Amino acid sequence: xxxxxxxxxxxxxxxxxxxxxxxxxxxxxxxxxxxxxxxxxxxxxxxxxxxxxxxxxxxxxxxxxxxxxxxxxxxxxxxxxxxxxxxxxxxxxxxxxxxxxxxxxxxxxxxxxxxxxxxxxxxxxxxxxxxxxxxxxxxxxxxxxxxxxxxxxxxxxxxxxxxxxxxxxxxxxxxxxxxxxxxxxxxxxxxxxxxxxxxxxxxxxxxxxxxxxxxxxxxxxxxxxxxxxxxxxxxxxxxxxxxxxxxxxxxx
Length: 252
Hints:
7 strands; alpha/beta; 7-stranded mixed β-sheet
């Protein structure tokens, strides 16, 4: 399996990266252009932007953190893709203050909807940045994974609280402002004009497996990566995934 990051970080990125890479390949074939224009909202230090640029694509990263953008610039330079990665300070609710509408073949919206004040508007902006039939990759925190994690840690009241909380939070000490079910995410993107192609459960097992097992058992890392990939598209596992990934295309 290809990796943007190895070794343990690939458990958090591998499934999404493989799906995203395939989506970019399909857009290349559909457009007849070798290089796509990709927008990565909240792209931070370039976990996906730099690998996408290494495929030859032009990537614009919008992020509110100047420190993250500085790290992105350094990372892109070290990877030899500084000419194909452009960082801009901003956020998804003010997206069109810094980028153009309808200018991108693919938009990444990873780890953004958990934090914005108006998730529906954030999704609309991501979609409006796309060219017709452009690809949207959306990644957000999953409710079920958090409930399962709290329960397995013995925090049963917190797990039950998260189940009934409108934002999917387990209490005042929860660092995550908002979590989603697969149904909530697909409703958001569909309402914004996206035809959903696939939903994936991300980190279904990785956050539950003891790190010492993955780090010390020969072949455990690759076996776990293969297991994650096999379970990702199975709806039965979406309800226990730490993150949920939605891939779709803007309606023409």
